[in-house]
Amino acid sequence: MDENKGLMQQLSGWCEELLLRGLSQFTIRDVELLEQCASTAQQLQMQFLNELISNIIEAGRRVALGEGQEARLLDQYCRLAQYVQLNVQSQA
After folding, report:
1. Distance CA 12, CA 82 (A)
2. Which of 19, 32, 72, 87 could join 59 in a cystine, given CB atoms 3.0 to 4.6 angstroms apart?
3. Is 68 strand, coil or helix?
4. DSSP letters for 40-53
């Protein structure tokens, strides 16, 4: 349970940070962090969370490499942020 809570707190912090930076500032460093989170989610058998993170990694990688598609990244970011927020609230 502590690993689950830790993962949610890490993702929540990242979501807040990216919101402050702006989606256009998504970098490869974000991809690396999210890949670690996806691995943890998979270990915890959180398949839906893993899918959400994988989708944002895919969209974010394209933005970070200059291929655009910020609208897709925004959509994926919102889905992940909402899931994380709901999860954090339910743990409180």
Report:
1. 10
2. 72
3. coil
4. HHHHTT-HHHHHHH
Enumerate residues 6+ apart whose C-beta is below 8 A from 52.
76, 79, 80, 83
**pLDDT (tens digit per residue) in 13-65:** 999 999 999 988 899 999 999 999 999 999 999 999 999 999 999 999 988 88
Domain limits, the chain: 2-91
- Is 7 in contact with 37 (CB distance < 8 Å)? yes
Q: Are 63 and 73 in contact (CB under 8 A)?
A: yes
H-helix segments, 1-92: 2-21, 28-43, 47-64, 70-91
